[in-house]
Fold:
Amino acid sequence: MRELIDKAHVLHEALPYIQRFHGATFVVKYGGHAMVDERLKSSFARDVALLKYVGIHPVVVHGGGPQIDQMLSTMGVVSERIDGLRVTDDKTMEVVEMVLAGTVNQDIVSLICGHGGRAVGLSGKDDLFLQAKKVTTMKTKSGTVVDPGRVGEIHRVKPDIVKRLVEAGFIPVIAPIAVDENGASLNVNADFVASRVAAALGAEKLVLLTDIEGVRGRDGSLLPHLDQREVTRLVEEGTIAGGMIPKVRCAFEALDGGTKKVHIVDGRMEHAILVEIFTDKGVGTEIVVG
Structure:
């Protein structure tokens, strides 16, 4: 009986948030360990379907680095990275597109549909809704300037196709493949696709699922709430460093584009999205304008 009562308390705690966010759009960047652990994959799909059922409009943007690595390894293709971006020649681009827009995207769509959601897979080539410019040069750690190949940076999002799918009751699942001015495919960082899509949709929230708990302070404690000025200070003093810097850059891009809050959440935790959004304490770090 105590367990049943506790469940009722959880629902009561969630109710104000369900009411507040009814009709709002949430963009969720899905990546990291949550994409490879079968239990977490199922949990994620169920949580996304639940968001739709309670009146929130989730839009999923996914990565797929480990899956691409596995396929390239199987084919005997060596792939390099510079600052987290994959150097993408024509052969690698074929594999990237096949894995992201094909296998990974459709697996996610199938999982969400299997839990009662109505999901549809997209890439930026659909209706040319993700348009990018080729990154012409990048510097290696040694300072050598190289051409990263078919790597792009988003310069325009045409959100009409996503909006129409949302309005029709579907959950869009977006692979981070964009097109250049000639219609050629470009490999784009999924975090930055998510931030630009969130801004274009006027999303209430951008949720970045990662393999860490959130932003930590100098003493190692989790920082549950930060504004942009606090984040900038933490970067300048070196408390925020390494792989977290691109995450906060994405957060700033989304916030500057009109998204109200960005959440950095540990995707290794089951139901992390629901706990972060529908409870008073949450489990990650939220970043707001300021």
